[in-house]
Write a structure and sequence with these properties.
The complex is a heterodimer of chains A (275) and B (268). Chain A is 85% helix and 0% strand. Chain A is mostly helical and 275 residues long. In chain A, α2 (58-70) packs across α10 and α5 crosses α8. Chain B has a domain at 4-70 and 149-252: 3-Layer(aba) Sandwich (Rossmann fold). In chain B, α2 runs parallel beside α4, α3 (102-115) crosses α4 (132-144) and α4 runs parallel beside α5 (162-179). The chains are: A mainly alpha (275), B alpha/beta (268).
């Protein structure tokens, strides 16, 4: 085969694979896409029957989103919320993760901290919003603290469960080979804890957005929540829906950029040997 | 026979309780240099507990464990492989636990894999992609990778079919005889014990000591199938030492779980 024919053959091969790839993508994303389209259709029907003052059409909402993102201020508002979510959740991951892992290994610490985790998990988010507003005033700190305090017990519980539900037989095996406690933690336990923590982290991320926006709305700090408060005072339903759409999109982007790749890496081996 | 100083492993008057139930009581066993001892006994007699005490994964309530060897390798009942790691990384695990450089660990893992006849292509696979026999090969390679001078096997081949078990036993015999390794091989199968071991020690059915030991004719690897068959048959039929090996009623074994062990419906 001449060197020029090789790329051609490769191209033809790809061409033959294309319908197959399309079918695979169709079966993978098709149902989800159909569900989304169905929802949009219902939204359109609702908009038609209630009028634009109660429920604007998806198209009007999309136009409002485009208007917000057309100005740098819009990006700044979304960015402010996203950065607060990242800061609060990072804080929660550091504190909750460290305490959770320690509590998983030390039963006494677990008994000491568990009631607090239960209390914090049960505390309504709005209570923290009010408290932090009084403590910190309408600042970044108030929002970040609220996000951190709401997600820390979630991460704590996930990390502690990860330690407790790890396969002890693997730990014993590593001990049988003379592995030190630190080496066993690093080589055997960490992967299992991370595998347990990844789905918990996705939940904590979604919770962070809800809490951050609520906190911004009440404290009236610049951010998606603040913008929603403004839309409410103007009774601007187009803007309100546009901000809702933006917050959901921001969450999805963060999840697909940060959480999903990590989960894929941690759970790749689970898909092996099936079928 | 050497002095006590030369014995690679001495288990002295071990006692071990598991959630209130005494599993081992006054169990003593002395291994001679270069000697592979098979410890046989019926299910539930505490053999596995003894293996774990020897391996250092359990500490006895009373008694002493004296180790005079440099390093041991362990093969467990189930392969106990890290499901997220490749066969190569699983074999290398004891080295990574030691802090050996990844490159060197991988290189030594590949050498160990050759000794248990693992295909190079299988080294990149995860445990879920390997058959039961291949997984146990990986587990043996993982035990050999630390270059041990003592081996502990805890009923490693119980879950394998007869042909596969034979092949695994041959690997063990070759490694043990070539390197002159001493070791402890736990099994409930007398013919497996007779194939592999220099000496067979018999455990009391309720873990109350080692009843005694017997030495099959010849050396491991040199015994013919006929010799083994005759030895096992005559031992089971005539030697009172082995009387409990087959006659033990597993229903009489104390239940570890809280449910009723008597009756039709048994949950444990």
């Amino acid at each position: 085969m001449s060197p020029r024919a090789a790329p051609l053959a490769r191209l033809r091969e790809r061409g033959e694979a294309l319908p197959l790839a399309l079918a695979e993508a169709g079966s993978r994303y098709g149902p989800g896409l159909a569900g989304l389209l169905l929802g949009l259709g219902l939204w359109q029907l609702g908009a038609l029957s209630y009028g634009p003052f109660i429920l604007p059409t998806p198209f009007a909402t999309a136009k409002a989103v485009a208007g917000i993102l057309g100005a740098p201020e819009g990006w700044a508002i979304v960015g402010a919320t996203v950065l607060r979510v990242i800061a609060g959740l990072s804080l929660a991951t550091a504190i909750g993760g460290a305490l959770g892992i320690a509590a998983g290994y030390l039963p006494l610490l677990m008994r000491l901290l568990r009631p607090w985790a239960t209390i914090l998990l049960g505390m309504p988010a709005i209570a923290w919003v009010i408290l932090t507003m009084i403590w910190f005033g309408p600042t970044h700190g108030a929002v970040i603290f609220t996000v951190a305090v709401m997600t820390t017990p979630v991460i704590f519980t996930g990390a502690a469960e990860g330690v407790l539900t790890r396969d002890r037989r693997l730990d014993d095996m590593a001990r049988g080979f003379g592995g030190s406690a630190w080496a066993r933690f690093r080589r055997v336990a960490v992967f299992q804890i991370a595998g347990h923590l990844a789905p918990v982290f996705a939940i904590a991320l979604a919770l962070s957005f809800k809490v951050a926006i609520m906190s911004e709305l009440v404290t009236n700090v610049t951010g998606i929540g603040g913008a929603l408060a403004l839309a409410r005072t103007h009774l601007d339903i187009d803007q309100a829906l546009a901000w809702v759409a933006l917050s959901v999109t921001a969450l999805l982007v963060l999840e697909h950029a940060a959480v999903r790749p990590l989960r894929r890496r941690l759970e790749r081996w689970r898909a092996l040997g099936r079928g | 026979m050497g002095t006590l100083i030369d014995t690679p492993l001495t288990l002295a008057a071990l006692r071990f309780s598991y959630s209130g139930r005494m599993v081992l009581r006054d169990v003593s066993l002395v291994l001679r240099p270069g000697e592979m001892v098979a410890l046989v006994g019926p299910s539930g007699c505490g053999k596995t507990t003894l293996a774990h005490i020897a391996a250092g994964t359990l500490a006895p309530d009373r008694g002493r464990v004296l180790r005079r060897y440099r390093r041991h390798g362990v093969v467990f009942q189930e392969p106990r492989l890290l499901p997220w790691a490749t066969a190569r990384d699983n074999i290398a695990l004891p080295l990574t636990l030691d802090g050996v450089r990844p490159e060197e660990a991988r290189h030594r893992a590949e050498e160990a894999a050759v000794r248990v006849a693992l295909e190079p292509a299988d080294l990149g696979k995860h445990p879920a992609e390997l058959s039961g026999g291949m997984r146990q090969r990986v587990a043996i390679a993982r035990a050999l990778v630390v270059d041990p001078d003592f081996m502990i096997f805890d009923e490693p081949f119980g879950a394998l079919d007869v042909v596969l078990r034979r092949r695994m036993q041959d690997i063990v015999i070759r490694e043990v005889t070539e390197r002159g390794l001493a070791g402890l091989f736990i099994t409930h199968d007398l013919s497996e014990a007779a194939r592999l071991a220099h000496r067979i020690a018999v455990m009391h059915p309720k873990g109350q000591g080692v009843l005694g030991s017997a030495v099959p004719p010849g050396r491991p690897g040199d015994r013919t199938e006929r010799q083994l068959f005759d030895y096992v048959q005559s031992s089971l039929a005539g030697d009172p030492l082995f009387a409990d090996l087959q006659s033990v009623d597993e229903r009489a074994a104390p239940a570890v779980c809280g449910c009723d062990p008597i009756g039709v419906q048994r949950c444990c």
